[in-house]
Request: fold
Amino acid sequence: MKCPLCENMDDKVIESRQNISGTSIRRRRECASCGYRFTSYEKVEEIPLMVIKKDNTRQPFDVKKMERGIQRAVEKRPVSQMKVDSILHDIEDEANLRGKSSHEIKSIELGEMVMTQLYALDKVAYVRFASVYRHFENVEEFVNIIDTLKNI
Reply:
């Protein structure tokens, strides 16, 4: 590492410490040329998960955006904030697992994950979310999805 005083590239590490949370390592260094001591930090660089939209554009994964959609679906329903938070954590974990290798996930997959979670949680919230997510345009689409819920 380049010495901040003399700009020599030769140094030695005299002490290394990991921080309490284990997210970074602090290294105390000494320049081999001038003896100046300085500190460097090493952290894991995380690549953010990107969402591939239907038009093939990409946006950073935003759990708050998903929370807004779920909150609208469960509005005035007997669903606690703890349950919503639990769903969000489950979906976020699943999305990170699915996008592990490429750091990308399709918005369709995220929508289906939300639908699956809401189906298990509250059928009214499921229908509300489905109507927006699948762009219902008439009453028959509502009737069809409710009929499928009755038959299950």
